[in-house]
Amino acid sequence: MRKTESEKVGGVILQYLREMGLETPLNEHRLINAWDTVLGPAVSKYTKDLKIYNQVLFVTVSSAALRNELMMRRTELVARLNAQAGAQVITQIVLR
């Protein structure tokens, strides 16, 4: 006997995360972890305190030259980080 209403496990898990309100925190965690992958270890060495509030990523940068470089590439970084996280998590980056 075959079941006709079977669902994929990934879909069921995603639905559960949405119902429990865990999808957004999970995506934010993925994006913060993607920072090292997207920017590499050389840049990660000068950044710390990554936090997300209201779809804005706040990053503390210890190098003024690097901060300027990242400011010029903010739009590109938002797109790359969201792509790596697999969802639209942030809309902008604030560098301190």
Relevant terms:
3-stranded mixed sheet; 96 residues; elongated; alpha+beta; GMP Synthetase, Chain A, domain 3; single chain
Q: Would you write up a description of this structure?
A:
This protein starts with 8 loop residues before the first helix and ends with a strand. The chain is α+β, with helices and mostly antiparallel strands and 96 residues long. The protein is elongated and about 65 Å long. The chain has one domain: GMP Synthetase, Chain A, domain 3, CATH 3.30.300. Helix 2 crosses helix 4. 57% of the residues lie in helices and 18% in strands. The model has no long low-confidence stretch (mean pLDDT 92). It is built from four helices and three strands, in the order H-H-E-E-H-H-E. A hairpin with a 2-residue loop joins strand 1 and strand 2.
User: What is the terminal-to-terminal distance?
Assistant: 62 Å
Estimate nothing, just give the exact number of structural domains. Answer: 1
What is the structural class?
alpha+beta
Query: What is the makeup of the main sheet?
Result: 3 strands, mixed
Q: What is the CATH level 1 assignment?
A: Alpha Beta
Strand content: 15-25%
Instruction: Please work out how many helical segments DSSP would assign.
Output: 4
Give the proportion of residues in helices. Answer: 55-70%
Radius of gyration: 17 Å
